[in-house]
Design brief:
α6 links the parallel β3 (140-144) and β4. The N and C termini lie far apart (48 Å). The protein is α/β, with parallel strands linked by helices. 41% of the residues lie in helices and 12% in strands. The longest helix has 24 residues, at 78-101. The strands form three sheets. The protein has a seven-stranded mixed β-sheet with strand order 2-8-7-6-5-3-4, sandwiched between helices. The chain has a three-stranded antiparallel β-sheet with strand order 9-12-11. Strands 1-10 form a two-stranded parallel ribbon. Keywords: Pyridoxal phosphate. Residues 9-19 have a biased composition (Basic and acidic residues). Residues 1-29 are annotated as: Disordered. It holds the Pfam family Aminotran_5. This is Aminotransferase class V domain-containing protein.
Length: 454
């Protein structure tokens, strides 16, 4: 008979009457070894140097087994599972997340499929402000120009009547001060002509190009400048940088747990700050039976689907605790690893990083040799695919167009950057394969123009 994973249950559902997770017992298992790490990720394609954890994350075998146990438990008796088991088990996961992000109350934490869903919830609520007449048409929404949810912002808010202002993210970026300066300019623009800034959307870690954004300082500036609401999109953040939602101070914060926190796809959280204005009428965009019972309950039931990814969060907590220093230790070693590997590539290609090293999380932007001639988005996609098919290297390529008035000769010369990731399963050989592949292309005089289109 299948049973759910053992992860510290007390009581029938592993929680007390308030949904609290039991206190952690002292760790009895030895720290995870390199060979055990290799076994946990042995399902990865062995012929590919996978240095792109940032796109889809990675899930260890033990967590996949835990997920499978939940799936079989549901399939054995679905009615009982949905009626008696699902809600308290999701509550356990919400408590684990609450502690991880330093939220005050579990009611501030909802679990959703991904950060894109979380963004839809926040943007939908803001769009109602325009459609219901609480906001004036032309009131502003501010976002970074490279925001991952850029199209969602336009779909929900521009269509509703918002004036969308994009903050240009300088790249290569030399300091956080550059980002702060551009952000302040956007807020000034947002308040021009008597407008109000109704929402600011700030990425904690931008996706492409990858930069750690000074979110705490930007949130503080928003408060000083009277921005109504601040939403931090930390899609890459949890397991990658420290998240303290009280310290950051945003009204909303989301992050995927399947990118850098070892959960299977797909699971994310949406934090909603508890305040005197809790009647924000946030609703899940998929309306189901729990509509009107609060966002957490609405998100916990959106019809018949596989909820198992949301139920293994406590198991993932146990997995990361097998590493020295837990998730903090993992973050530190991944950051050090990506910087070290980036330095190796920069030295080999005589290029540069796209950001200061302290603004790299577990990802880094590394300049490619200019002779490859990455001169368009199409070129970046062709090169990425060629590296995958010809050399077994999986890494995103970013095209960075030169801008008028630039004086940095190195920035003008380098228009192609690789976004390398470092996760616990990566080894030095992964980056050496990438280095050698690029060196071979350079040696053979290959340019992007010469690469096949598909």
């Amino acid at each position: 008979m299948d049973s759910p994973p053992k992860n510290g249950h007390h009581g029938e559902n592993g929680i007390d009457g308030h949904g609290r997770r039991p206190p952690k017992k002292p760790k009895l298992v030895a720290p995870i070894t390199p060979s055990e790490i290799a076994t946990e990720f042995a399902h990865h394609e062995p012929s590919v140097a996978r240095i792109n954890n940032g796109s889809f994350g990675s899930c260890p075998s033990s967590i996949l087994s835990a997920q499978s146990a939940w799936q079989r438990l549901f399939l054995r008796q679905p009615d009982q599972f949905y009626s008696d088991r699902l809600r308290p088990e999701i509550l356990r996961s919400r408590h684990a997340i609450k502690d991880l992000i330093n939220a005050d109350d579990v009611e501030e934490v909802s679990i959703v499929d991904n950060a894109t869903t979380a963004a839809a919830i926040v943007l939908q609520q803001s769009s109602w402000g325009f459609s219901e007449g609480r906001f004036d048409r032309g009131d502003a929404v501010v976002m970074l120009h490279c925001a991952y949810v850029k199209k969602s912002i336009h779909a929900y808010l521009h269509r509703a009547g918002a004036h969308v202002i994009e903050v240009h993210l300088p790249f290569p970026v030399r300091s956080s001060a550059e980002i702060v300066s551009e952000f302040k300019k956007a807020l000034v623009k947002g308040r021009s002509n008597g407008r109000k800034v109704r929402l600011a959307v700030i990425d904690h870690i931008t996706s492409m190009p990858c930069v750690v954004v000074p979110v705490k300082e930007l949130v503080r500036i928003c408060r000083e400048e009277g921005v109504d609401r601040v939403f931090v999109d930390g899609a890459h953040a949890i397991g990658n940088v420290e998240i303290d939602v009280k310290d950051i101070g945003a009204d909303f914060y989301t992050s995927n747990l399947h990118k850098w926190f070892f959960c299977p796809p797909s699971v994310a959280f949406l934090y909603t700050k508890k305040s005197g204005t809790t009647d924000l009428q946030l609703h899940h965009p998929v309306v189901s039976h729990e509509y009107g019972n609060g966002l957490a309950d609405e998100s916990a039931w959106i019809g018949t689907r596989d909820y198992s990814a949301q139920l293994v969060v406590p198991d993932v907590m146990d997995f990361v605790d097998r590493f020295e220093g837990g998730i903090e230790g993992i973050r530190r070693r991944n950051h050090e690893g990506v910087v070290q590997m980036g330095e190796m590539l920069v030295e080999a290609w005589k290029t540069c990083f796209g950001t200061p090293k302290e603004m790299c999380p577990s990802m880094a932007m590394v300049g490619l040799p200019a002779c490859l001639k990455v001169l368009s988005e199409s070129d970046s996609l062709k090169l990425r695919r060629y590296l995958r098919v010809k050399f077994g290297v999986e890494v995103p390529i970013y095209y960075r167009a030169s801008r008028e008035g630039e004086e940095d000769e190195e920035a003008i010369r380098i228009t192609g950057y690789a976004r390398i990731s470092h996760q616990v399963y990566n080894v030095v050989e992964d980056y050496c394969r990438f280095r050698d592949a690029v060196n071979q292309l350079v040696c053979e005089g290959v340019t992007c123009e010469m690469l096949p289109d598909n």
